[in-house]
TrEMBL record:
It comes from Reichenbachiella agarivorans. This is ABC transporter permease. It comes from the Bacteria. The lineage of its organism: Bacteria, Pseudomonadati, Bacteroidota, Cytophagia, Cytophagales. InterPro entries: ABC3_permease_C, Lipoprotein-release_system, MacB_PCD. Belongs to the ABC-4 integral membrane protein family. LolC/E subfamily. Keywords: Cell membrane, Membrane, Transmembrane, Transmembrane helix. The keyword Transferase does not apply. Residues 273-398 form the ABC3 transporter permease C-terminal domain. Its main location: membrane. It holds the Pfam family FtsX.
Amino acid sequence: MNFPYFISGRLSKDVNSSFTSIISKLAVVSITLSLSAMILAYFILGGFQKTVRDKIYNFKGHLEITKYTLGSSFDDNFIRVDTDFIEGLHHYEFVDHTQSFAYKAGMLKTQEEVEGVGLKGVSHDFDTLRFKENMVEGRFIAFTDSAYSKEVVLSRRIANKLRLHVGDKVTVYFVQNPPKFRRLEIVGLYETGLEEIDKSMVLADIDLIRRLNNWDDTQVGGVEIFVKDGYDMDQAEETMYADLDSYLYVDKVKEKYMQIFDWLDLLSQNVSVFLILILVVACFNMVSILLILIMERTYMIGVFQAIGATRQQIKRVFLYNGMRLVLQGLLFGNGAALLFAFVQDRFHLIPLDPVNYYMSFVPIQWNFEALIYLNALTFVIVLLALRIPLMVITKVNPVTALKFD
C-alpha cells in the first residue's frame, strides 16, 4: 500500500476540522478564479485580435498589388488586369481570392451638409460573403453588365453625420478637371468599427470610376489578394514580389494599418504580464494555505515520525493533498471559464462601445491549445511552489511536535 497516498486520501476526507475544510475550500477557490481568469483573458484577447484583423482584411484583403509610383494621385495610378501576371494570380497555392478595386476622391452633398469621402470602386469579384458581417442595414450593390450601377453603400458613421438613410439619393461631386457629379442611391450601410475606414470610405461600382477616369474595362486601381489560412503573409509577399512585373508593387495591408497591429501586439504583452501576476498570486495563496495545513497537523507529523515514517513520506502526504486541491481548482476553473465563454459567445451579454473598441460586444475565440497550455502551466508552476512549505517538515522535531497539541 502507498502509505503517503493513503494518508493523504484520509486527510482530504476529514470533515472533523471545520478550519481545515475552510482552508481547503479557499485553496480550490483560489485556483479556480486564477485559472478561469487566465483562460478568459486568452479567449477574449484572441477574439478581440481576430475581430479587428478580420474587419481590416475583409475590407482590404491581405495583400495589395498596385502600380509602382512615387505619387499619391487617385486618378493617374492604374494597372491592367489582362496581363499574364494578374491573370495567373490564382495559380499561387496561397491565393484564396482576388478582387479588383479603384479609388476616387469626392464629396457627398446634402441640403445641409458636405462631407469629403473616398469612393472605393468594386466589381462582381468583390467577396460579399466576407464583407457580410459588416453590413448593418440594407443590401450590397447590384452590378449590371450594360452600364455602371448607380448604387452606393455608406458607412453608418457617414450616414448618421449627414442624416442619410437607406433609399435616400445623394449627390457626389468628384474632384477633377472639369468637375463632375453623379446622383446615386444609398442601398446599404456598413460598419467596421475602424475609424480609418468608417469616417470616409464609400463603396461604389468600379465602372463608375472607370467612366469618370476614362479607363477601359481592363484598367483598375489595383488588385486585392486574400491569403489562405495557414500561410505566412510575409512569405507570400516575398514570393509574389519576386515574380512581379517591373511597374507593379505588392504591399501587405498590415503595413498600412501598422499602428493598429502594433497596438494588438502590445495587448498580447499586457495579457502575458497579467498571466504572470495571476500565477504569482495563485502560488502565494497555495503556499500559504499548505503551510497553514502543515502547521495544523504538527502533532500528526510528530506521531508519524515517532512510529518510523520518514520525512520524505510525510512530505509526499502533504504534496498529494496539495495536488488534490490544485486538480479540483483546475476542474472548477475550466468549467467556470468554458461556461462563461459559451454564454458570452452565444448571447453577447457583455456589450462594448464600438467607437472605442471597434466592436459592439466582448468577442470569444475558442483557443483550446491555449486552454491545455494554461492548465499544464498552472499545474506545474503551483506544484513546484508547493515544495516551499514542505521544507518546514524537515525542521519539525518529533518531541516538540508531540507536545504541540
